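Changelog note: in this version the structure field was regenerated for every chain. One regenerated record is shown below for reference.
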Amino acid sequence: MQNLPENKKIVLFDGVCNLCDNAVQFIIKHDKKDVFRFASLQSQIGQEIIKKIGIDVSKIDSIILYEPGIAYYYKSEAALNIAADLSGAVSFLTIFKIFPAGFSNYFYDYVAKNRYSWYGKKDNCMIPTPELKSKFLDS
């Protein structure tokens, strides 16, 4: 596996999902502390990370937050941990951590199950602009 950037959290996302693409753009816009790097689940590095942490993506339809050498999170737990590092009002979403993961994941799973029909799907993963290329591990 290629060397992962030090002191960065890695967001693994569905590269053909329009909702996921919009979420990545939102994270980049609000990542004022430059905490995150990104890789699509479909990319080689994304597949290597998934294999390393032992997640079966056929059973987990989710964004994954990977903190190399520390931990990984998926579903609502990933989303809330990402929100905690973002600037602006979105960081207040972490208040939802008071709810049990099963409760939060119920809503997460509902959106994940319907994301293609609600937001559409692309034929290919997004190609980052030259300005954003350094934020992506698989570009």
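Spot check on this record: The longest strand covers residues 9-13. The chain has four helices and four strands.
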